[in-house]
Amino acid sequence: MFRATLQQDLAFFGGASQTSELIRQITEDTKEACASVKHLFQNGLRAVAGLLGGAHALYTLSPSLSLVTLTLLPLGGVAFDRFGLFVRGYSRASQSAEARAGFLVGESIGNVRTVQAFCGEGAEAERFGREVRSY
Predict the structure, then answer these.
(1) Which residue among 9, 23, 43, 48 sits deepest, i.e. has the most Cβ atoms within 10 Å of its Cβ?
(2) What would the mean pLDDT of 19-30 be, rounded to a whole number?
(3) What is the biggest distance separating any 2 CA atoms in the chain, rounded to whole angstroms?
(4) CB 19 within 8 A of CB 110
(5) Residue 87: which residues within 8 A CB-CB, separation 6 or more?
(6) 118 by DSSP, 3-state: which?
(7) All structural domains of the chain with their residue ranges
(8) Helices and strands (H, E) in the chain, number of each type
């Protein structure tokens, strides 16, 4: 979408209000794409919570299996802690890349006359693509 936006005629960009609207829309679309990845992680955590609920039901039915479960729970806690660190690091990197991509969109759309004057649409789209892929 960013590449197609950069290749529009200058008349498409209109005034400052339309330029800011384009920047907002591209930034929102980028955030939405990142949110889908975050939802994937959240759904995974829900599945694990369901697994733990099932394990609890088993725990109440069989005391011998509950002993096995008790020995494995600390390992699960450590695994969840490590996974939480991973998600936190990923989230920070994602927010940073999102901010850089938003800045790049603002810079390119705000200076679209210069970008088009030097036939830089492809280069700007590639820069934007690198930022989005770094999510």
Answers:
(1) 23
(2) 79
(3) 75
(4) yes
(5) 41
(6) coil
(7) 15-133
(8) 6, 0
